[in-house]
Amino acid sequence: MCKAVVESGDEKMAEGINNGIIYLMIFPYLLMFVIGFLVYKKIKKSRKNI
After folding, report:
1. pLDDT score of 41 more than 80
2. By CB neighbour count within 10 A (0-12 exposed, 13-18 middle, 19+ buried), where does 14 fall?
3. How far apart, in Å, do the first and last CA atoms of the chain sit?
4. Exposure string over 15-40, b if 16+ CB within 10 A, otherwise e
5. What would the pLDDT profile of 6-35 be if each residue is shown by its tens digit?
6. Using an 8 Å Cβ cutoff, are 4 and 12 in contact?
7. Helix (H) or strand (E) holding 50
8. Helices marked H in 1-50 — which ranges?
9. Would you give the DSSP letter of residue 6?
10. Residue 26 to residue 1: CA distance in whole angstroms
C-alpha cells in the first residue's frame, strides 16, 4: 500500500509516509539510549560505594 501511494505521484503523501517511518524509527533508539544511560548511572553509583 505504501509503495502504491508513493508511486501515484502525490508528493505530499509520500513525504508524510517518509516522516512517519522516521518517527517510528526514533523510538527504539531513544529507548536503547535511556536504558543504557540508566544502566551506566547504576554501575557508576555501585562502583562509587565500593
Report:
1. yes
2. middle
3. 57
4. eebeeeeeeeeeeeeeeeeeeeeeee
5. 777 777 877 888 888 899 999 999 999 999
6. no
7. none
8. 2-7, 11-48
9. H
10. 22
What CA–CA distance (Å, rounded) separates 43 from 33?
15
The neighbour count for residue 8, using CB atoms within 10 Å, is: 10
Task: Tell me how far apart the alpha carbons of residues 31 and 4 are, in angstroms, rounded to a whole number.
Answer: 32
- Grid coordinates standing for 15? 513525504
Q: 25 or 48, which is more confident? A: 25
